Give the backbone structure.
Amino acid sequence: MSRAVLWWCAGGLLLSHVGLLLGNIWLHSETGYEGMHLASGIVGWRTGSFDSYRVNPPLVRLVAALPAALVYGEAELPLAEDPGHLRSELMLGHQLAKQLGHGVDAVVIWGRLACLPFALAGAIACWRWARALAGEAAGLAALALWCISPGVLTYGALTVTDGPAAACTVLAGYAFYTWLAHGEAHRAWWAGLALGVACLTKFTCLVLAPVFMLVWVLHRWQQRRAERPRGSATPLWQLALLFAVALLAVNTAYGFAGTLRPLGNYAFTSLRLGAPTVQGNVASTGNRFAGTPLGWVPVPLPAVFVDGLDLQWRDLDQPRRCYLAGRWLPKGVWYYYLYGLAVKAPLGHWALALLATVCALGQWREQFQAPRLCAPVLAMAVLVLVSAETNMCVYMRYLLPAVGPFYVWAAAAVCRPGRYLKLRAWAAAACVLASAASVLWYYPHTLAYFNELAGGPLGGPRCLGGDSMDWGQDRYFLARWLAAHPEARPFYTNALYMRLPEEPWAEGVREIPEGPFPEGWYGVTAGAVSESEASPYAGLSRARQVGRAGYSIYIYRLEPSGQQAADEP
């Protein structure tokens, strides 16, 4: 295949990726935490303070909120945070929705468009990294896997941190690989900058630092053992430069506010760092390092960054019930994310992973080289990190930073030069096409995507709860259903938190009442359906379904006798 054809293929994949992302941006309503991210970003631009929503670094919300910050002045959109509240972003999100009303939809769409370059950067990094490892076929395979990934298509089209964190993780991994491969100081500088940017998207990306250190140590050991002239190609001072640039990037983003504060001078709220009790949004403070030699050590990070990490750990200190395979567990389990991958990842991805494992075992000596280990070790580190936090087995999106490095490793392992290359390349193409067919069959409902073994999106509520199925994304689809069925009144729903627009057809839409359900039509979210017997809507979810809005809102009808009508309106 000529180079021109390869470039056309890559360009076509990137254009298709943009088109699919734009479709998700336009077709889906505000989800989960998008309003809180945008409101906190607007406050950040105005005040230069990042106290609100500090459980995440500020980069993504600042990028997403930039269009709104440019359009709305403080007089037009007054937002006031409560500095005494641990999670003031909740209040800010409510203020944004109340003050803008239906206009918040446009703010969300512009914020999503502003975050679109993150997904493109991740796609290009996958392409170039896999191509550097194993050639053009591997690059195209990794690019295609990224472009049709249901997780990337979902969270790359939202204003939350998970999609950008996935993109910046693979970008930082690629930059680190190029430094290891070439050993040039300017590449260490770029790798450090990429690491710093990744750490500014999500705290999960902090796992990059120990992974980089581990891979570097292995690389130096392998070089010295081989007694090659390039044994000093990646000296310690360049690694120090890499981490220094990353620290500089993080501190610059926060304006060096509180940098070098002694560790003992913090008032922590998490059990891990010193708080004896944590209840709701009221927590006692403490510091296990105060009065110890470590308490005098200056922390080379901004104070808000450290406070945010502590607050994130505080959230992880509180066990949450876990819904898994139709059962409620008192807390999460270590295999939650493995099960989630089994039901959420396309079967073509699983076939490619199996093929890549076989191919890697066949060339294990070559695969054990440190630069080649960077991608699989990084993916495994993210998986181990999120699986270890069993108090928070709720969101599959936490695993998203692992997908880019995994795609790079799988594509490079299958498409490496050698015997049966054409056969392996065709097998990889078949896996990619199978995944693409499965994802596109359910598009644009990529957030609710489940593979065929799980029964597709309709089988999702039997497998996982939380935002793995239902995150408020189908308000527009519910609006269309209600407009097309004016006779479906009165209509009761537990989805009014999605702010149905005040249109004439929305008359008669109200909250589901407590107690006996009156006759009428009911729209119940998939999250409530998945709660089974624990849900107050369990009786409705067992009734015969007569419609649905997207894949996350199920519609039922109750007749005066309490029996479900057999026909769909």
